[in-house]
Write the structure tokens for this entry.
Amino acid sequence: MAYKVNPDVCVNCGACESACPVSAISEKDGKRNIDATKCVGCGSCAGTCPVSAINQD
């Protein structure tokens, strides 16, 4: 199951992007965005997010 970034909570620090093993995360409109077609559901991004802005969709 893919993960999703809550844009209201995201502080755009980039920690999730560097933690993603499949490069499914990029910046969009000043926030991070997860491409659900690339996400393998490993949760590395959620575990790295300092503000808990990432949850399973």
